[in-house]
Amino acid sequence: MLKFVLRVLRFSGKYAARLKLSFVLSFIDGIISSVPIVLIWQVIDGALNDTLVHDDILLFTVILVLSLMLRMVLRYWFVLLESGTGYELCERERISLGDKLRRLPMGFFSEGNLGHVTSVITVDLPFIEEMGMDALDKVIGGFATSLIGLIMLFMVDWRIAFISIAAFITAYLLLKALEGVSKRQSPIRQRQQAELVSAILEYVQGISVIKSFNMSGEKAKRIKDAIDSTKDHAIDFEVSLLVPTLLYKLCFAFGTTLTILTAAFLAIRGELSLSLAIAMFMFIFSIYTPATGFGSLSSQLRIMEAGLDRYEALKHLKETEDSPQAAAITSHDIAFENVSFSYDKDRILEKISFIAKEGRVTALVGPSGGGKTTIANLIMRFWDVEEGRVAIGGTDIRQVNNDELLSRISVVFQDVHLFNDTIENNIRFGKSSATINEIVEASKKAKCHDFIMALPNGYGTIVGENGSLLSGGERQRISIARAILKDAPIIILDEATASVDPDNEIDIQHAIGALIQDKTLIIIAHRLSTIQYADQILVVENKHIIEGGTHNELLSNQGRYASLWEKRQKAGGWQIKSRNV
Questions:
Q1: How many folded domains does the chain comprise?
Q2: pLDDT reading at 580 higher than 60
Q3: Which pTM was predicted?
Q4: Contact at 8 Å (CB) between 555 and 561?
């Protein structure tokens, strides 16, 4: 248990001094907690020997009141130092973890780690925050009370003291066994919780698809299995602790019984005064009760240690390496030079090279899964290339500070994410210092001002979780407004008009045209009609760029692009035919 205290001190960093001071206060509080028993002994001794006088009672009362008042002051400062530190400490770690997450490669988030991260933030840190400081109090207070009690027992009678020492030694050995069981079971418990959270998140996030395909029962089975498994492991955890915890507590029960019998025997033989024997009957409980609680506390500490293990493993994940000395970017041509990249063992891009000129439009087209979005992600350093390099203005982006790099890029994703906040704040996310006039201007360019003003609260309307209260086209236009507001020199549009109705598509294309003046624009598109006026169209397929040129040049080549164009034209004219045809 003392190892856990030392670990928390290391974990607390700059708050360690405050925790150490709280330990001192807790130790002093443990000493003062013995004052009432000493006073009771004096009162009983005086009463039995007929030496108790009025002045003694008055003095004992004053001492008792003063000790209680002093304990109140000590507890106040202890709670202020220890519990307050716990909340500040976990606040610091949450902010630190948020900063850590944004610097992790995107591969971490695509490997099924959402439940793991969510459990750390919603289960592990709150458990440490709410239970950790209280556990430290019980550990320090329990050790202080037990140590002081043993010293006092030696001052009373060495035989009674040796009984207590034997009880503590036996209990310590049983506690080590108990901790061993807890240490084995706690990581299983934490892992099971992560799997449960992951299953619930998957179900809730996909509920619209699940309901529309009437798959509620089948998909709910994973949650039910996760809940059943969590229940089974929780029961196993408790059952595995049952016998060692019972033996541990019985150890102190036997110690209490032997102490009382020994004190009574010594009193009968005249080797111990009756008043002191009675005091021992009460005092032994104040020594053993805190230590008895260590049995239940042990499993809590192991759970917290498992939580700290999981949290620290997350904090030590390798981040996308940031350049300590940010290289200057003087222009915004984007160059891919023999770039290769794989997800796990699946090769996605193979030695591709191209240049997207500043102030020009470069469109990426091709079949799904061909690597178009991967190219955009590599520009933003969501992943790092395996071979070759990506350069902006001739500078390898790995030599550019991440914050500096991303400040130069605005992105409109195909899957738009809005925060559960006002429309105004969602657009302001592109530029935190923006005024409302700047936000309105960006909204007008993105052709979303009119529908925003038609809402009951206008720009103050809450959009719901992930923009659920808005249509797909409305969400996408707000996302475009956010990118316009940022006014970065590099723009990446990943199917930016995919959810926009035909009436607004032309308006948004005009807005984008105004946005990209003197900027580098990368467009990922499946609707080829939206990019036919691009300065450069690259066809990405089978890990390579198989064609490149303008719309007319590629059509005249009669290659893959021409084939895609023809298929898209046919698809654009599809219709439902009569059953009688």
A1: 2
A2: no
A3: 0.63
A4: yes
Residue appearing with tokens 């458990």: 127
Section 364-375 average pLDDT: 85
Tokens of 469: 């209260």
Residue 351 neighbours by CB distance under 10 Å: 14
Residues 557 and 501 in one domain: yes
64 domain-assigned: yes
Q: Are 545 and 362 in contact (CB under 8 A)?
A: no
Q: How many helices (H) and strands (E) does the chain have?
A: 22, 10
Under 8 Å between Cβ of 32 and 71: yes
Q: Which of 393-402, 452-461, 471-480 has the highest mean pLDDT?
A: 452-461
Asked whether residue 423 is assigned to any structural domain, the reply reads yes
Among 60, 35, 45, CA closest to 145: 35
**311 lies in the same domain as 343:** no
Give the SS3 label for residue 434: coil
Do 213 and 184 fall within a single domain? yes
Dump the DSSP string for 262-331: HHHHHHHTTSS-HHHHHHHHHHHHHHHHHHHTHHHHHHHHHHHHHHHHHHHHHHTSPPPP--SSPPP---
Confidence of residue 215 (pLDDT cuts 50, 70, 90): low
Q: Which amino acid is at 49?
A: N
Q: What is the CATH number of the domain that holds 283?
A: 1.20.1560.10
Is residue 390 very low, low, confident or very high in pLDDT (cuts 50, 70, 90)?
Answer: very high
33 with 140, same domain: the answer is yes
CA distances to 152, 210, 267, 556, 570 from 282, rounded to whole Å, are 13, 64, 15, 100, 93
Domain that holds residue 548: 334-572
Same domain, 476 and 524: yes
Q: What is d(CA 249, CA 174) in angstroms, rounded to the nearest whole number? A: 9
Residues 417, 548, single domain; the answer is yes
Residue 324 lies in a domain: no
Gap between the Cα atoms of 547 and 367, Å rounded: 13
Q: Per the structure block, which two tokens stand in for 93?
A: 């770690």
Q: Is residue 492 in a domain?
A: yes
Together in a domain, 344 and 285: no
Q: Of the candidates 282, 315, 348, which is a domain's last residue?
A: 315
Distance CA 93, CA 351 (A): 41
**What rounded mean pLDDT belongs to the chain?**
79
Strand residue runs (E) in 453-552? 490-494, 520-524, 536-541, 544-549
Q: Are residues 280 and 347 in the same domain?
A: no
Given this model, what pLDDT does residue 352 score? 92
DSSP characters over 54-111: HHHHHHHHHHHHHHHHHHHHHHHHHHHHHHHHHHHHHHHHHHHHHHHHTTS-HHHHTS
Residue 205 has pLDDT above 60, yes or no: yes
